[in-house]
Amino acid sequence: MSATIKDIAEYLNISPGTVSRALNGKGRIGESTRRKVYEVAEKLKYVPNEIARSLKMKKTSTIGVIIPDATNIFYSIMLKSIDKSLLKKGYNILFCDSDENIERETEYFELLKGKNVDGMIIVTSGENSIYKDEETLSNIVFVDNIPAIDRDFSYVTIDNMKAAYDLTQLVIDNGHKDIAVVCADLSETTGYDRLEGFKKCIKDNGIEYNPDKIYKGSFRYQTGYEAAGKILKGKKYPTTIFAQNNVQAYGVVKRLSESSINIPDDISIVCFDAIDQTGMMSPKLTSVMQPVEEIGERAVKCILDNIDNDDTELEVSRNILGYKINLGKSLKRI
Amino acid sequence: MSATIKDIAEYLNISPGTVSRALNGKGRIGESTRRKVYEVAEKLKYVPNEIARSLKMKKTSTIGVIIPDATNIFYSIMLKSIDKSLLKKGYNILFCDSDENIERETEYFELLKGKNVDGMIIVTSGENSIYKDEETLSNIVFVDNIPAIDRDFSYVTIDNMKAAYDLTQLVIDNGHKDIAVVCADLSETTGYDRLEGFKKCIKDNGIEYNPDKIYKGSFRYQTGYEAAGKILKGKKYPTTIFAQNNVQAYGVVKRLSESSINIPDDISIVCFDAIDQTGMMSPKLTSVMQPVEEIGERAVKCILDNIDNDDTELEVSRNILGYKINLGKSLKRI
DNA sequence: ATGAAAGCGCTAACAG
DNA sequence: CTGTTAGCGCTTTCAT
């Protein structure tokens, strides 16, 4: 075990309190003792025990982060952005990958509470009664996919409905009328909102809504892959497939290419968040791009503001950021 | 603040010790009190304070993980694998992205010590005196890129020299003699070993080693991109570029494609860890594939074994796993 | 400027 | 079976 404040105190024949003050530079402290304390601390390789400090201070300088899938580049960029922003302020991440599993998310949530994190940044995964009954959501900020519950909470997201509307409009402007949608579970607000935006847009453009063209599943690769499979079984292909996230889109592309369907010549594809850091993905997907790094930064700002503001009115912070549409090469003008 | 053991105790007019035992099911405890304690705990929404418990038990059930870049799919898969394995055993990850920066890594390392993690899984980033002078490395397992220090420590990695040798042999077997290498800093053992493997292989094949064909930098995209740029300035192109990791390779591909160099018709590319979960990367890179998930699992096993074995001989655990070579489509037979 | 003492919430002897 | 006590390492009044 490493040296403690008490060890330093005994070594110098002074009291632990004095050592603590010397180390933290708080309260009146003699310059000479202060120096001595530092010397001995060095000598004894003293490392402050943050656990003890946390217990006393009721502050862990740790933020819990729950994301659905660290291997999805969208979330890994977000994670990195959060980490970077937090480090600047002296905080750390207690990392949780829920694997898009609500049970696992719940488990992690309880765990994070027990570990007394100062706050949480959560990307939820679907239908959850968890957050409905929580006493307070005041030190939580929800990000991207926010919970569909009827109460106030802080969040950072984009206007998914509008983004889906815009994307759909782009598709229609390119001459498409027959559009299939790969859709997540509607308990996910992003899934719901993106579908609503789509519906509203086609309606505004006089295109009839056909539920048969909505392929529901999750936000996973498999959902996109299987949806494309079903689409290919139909007699007439849609001219565009709208995937609600990046991973679904990859699944669609995979399935289509297995059947030698050319994108976008045979079928166009549009989606959300088709980030390509490698520059090697082909074709370049036409996609709504959320400002993912900024989302991470804002979430951190949001949570830390809340912590700093202490017990002053716990007001929720609602952040709706802008987005862009990356034109890519997967939408054909017809 | 949430309810404590003391609150439950007072509520029931029993002692905190009894409540603790009831909750933990340790020691003799009456079935009736036990039930009552549970009821009241529920009623008061008791959440055990893990910080206090940690302080007492000298155990945080938290493992520090330092990786160079969460947005590199190789590391994000590893991270997820570690998280999954740890959760099963009731541990959590304190996550640190060093951004391939040794100062940041050092900072995180100190921080993790202070936070009393029970162990660490570290992918180091280059030259570091940090680990040389540590009193003990016994609760650390190094992964992938292990530190180049002359002392014992636990690790999980592959035989990088042999893997590079095999990859080079494959290149040579395909008729190539003029091979350029995109190389990380040699203070990184993976960089060093992979270069050594390359050198040994060409030597064994009677090909002369030409230092001018080694393009040194870091493991970053930029290094690959710039190396390719320099290569294209030469009068005669190598027939193959060997990149030491995936990200470098992406940079190479990017730069080559900007100059409309066809891969592999004009220049072949081989590398390490060209993982493609999307299935959309083109061309498919010929690449050594480390068993990244298994590396994560093994690292977890390694660290937990060490923790469980307590103070019995702290023996280091050396794990060298197997690898595969993914043939891909970026190596041309000439 | 420093010491003494209490206490954060929990667990683990040791009594009874 | 349960109460009491001490203490994990630290900070922070309150004295001196």
How does this structure look, described?
2 copies of one chain form a homodimer. Chain A has 334 residues and is an alpha/beta fold. Chain A folds into 3 domains: 5-48, Orthogonal Bundle (434 Repressor (Amino-terminal Domain)); 56-157 and 292-321, Rossmann fold, CATH 3.40.50.2300; 160-290, Response regulator (Rossmann fold), CATH 3.40.50.2300. Chain A is 42% helix and 16% strand. Chain A has 11 helices and 12 strands. Chain A has helices at residues 5-12, 16-24, 31-43, 50-57, 73-88, 102-114, 160-173, 189-204, 221-233, 246-258, 292-308, and strands spanning 62-67, 92-97, 119-122, 140-143, 154-158, 179-183, 214-216, 240-243, 268-272, 286-289, 318-321, 324-326. Chain A has a 6-stranded parallel beta sheet with strand order 2-1-3-4-5-11, sandwiched between helices. In chain A, helix 1 crosses helix 2 (16-24) and helix 9 (221-233) crosses helix 10 (246-258). The radius of gyration of chain A is 25 Å and the shape is elongated. Chains A and B meet through helix 4, helix 5, strand 2, helix 6 and helix 10 of A and helix 4, helix 5, strand 2, helix 6 and helix 10 of B. Chain A binds a DNA duplex (16 and 16 nucleotides) through helix 2 and helix 4.
Question: Radius of gyration of chain A, Cα only, in angstroms?
Answer: 25 Å
Instruction: Write the element-wise H/E pattern of chain A from the N-terminal end onward.
Output: HHHHEHEHEEEHEHEHEHEEHEE
Most extensive contact: A-B, 54 and 54 residues
Give the termini distance of chain A in whole angstroms: 71 Å
Strand residue content of chain A:
15-25%
CATH topology of the largest domain in chain A: Rossmann fold
Give the number of helices of chain A. Answer: 11
Instruction: Write down the domain tally of chain A.
Output: 3
Percent in helix of chain A: 40-55%
CATH class of the largest domain in chain A, anyone?
Alpha Beta
Strand order across the largest sheet of chain A: 2-1-3-4-5-11
Overall strand count of chain A: 12
Shape of chain A: elongated
| CATH architecture descriptor of the largest domain in chain A | 3-Layer(aba) Sandwich
Multimeric status of the protein: homodimer
